[in-house]
Amino acid sequence: MNLNVSKIALNLPAQNNSNKNLKMNSKLTLTIEQSVIEKAKKYASQKGRSLSDIVENYLKVVTKEEEKNIELTPIVKSMKGSFKAPKSLDYKKELSKSLNQKYL
């Protein structure tokens, strides 16, 4: 099976280890089927975004789980589980009600 495959180079921000707030762009070359590249470029154009931006945001989403391992401070650990909401509490309804009172 001979697939029509092309390479695409994307400029994606790379973090500088010495300063996490400073971000630099790095080039990444991917080998992707030509038809996928064409569809992705069309999609990006329709959304008014660059293909690099879409790929970068996708990679951020799929790698986000690794960032969730944040260590809790002792104070936060001591508070964990100290509040038990009633099972009948509709969190979304209460949040909506509070936000309506605050902003409307």
How is the secondary structure organized here?
Blueprint: E1 5-16, E2 19-33, H1 34-47, H2 51-62, H3 64-67, H4 74-79, H5 91-103
Antiparallel strand pairs: 1-2
Describe this structure in words.
This protein is an alpha+beta fold and 104 residues long. It has one domain (5-81). The protein has helices at residues 34-47, 51-62, 64-67, 74-79, 91-103; strands spanning 5-16, 19-33. The longest helix has 14 residues, at 34-47. The protein is elongated, with a radius of gyration of 22 Å. It starts with a strand and ends with a helix. The model has no long low-confidence stretch (mean pLDDT 79).
Q: Portion of residues in helices?
A: 40-55%
SSE ordering? EEHHHHH
Strand order of the largest sheet: 1-2
Strand content: 25-35%
Number of strands: 2
What about the largest sheet? 2 strands, antiparallel
- Global Rg: 22 Å
Mean pLDDT: 79
- Total count of helical runs of at least 4 residues: 5
* Structural class determined from secondary elements: alpha+beta
The dominant shape is: elongated
Q: How many domains would you count in the coordinates?
A: 1
Query: How widely separated are the two ends?
Result: 61 Å
Low-confidence stretches: none
Features:
alpha+beta, 2 strands, 5 helices, elongated, 26% strand, two-stranded antiparallel ribbon, 104 residues
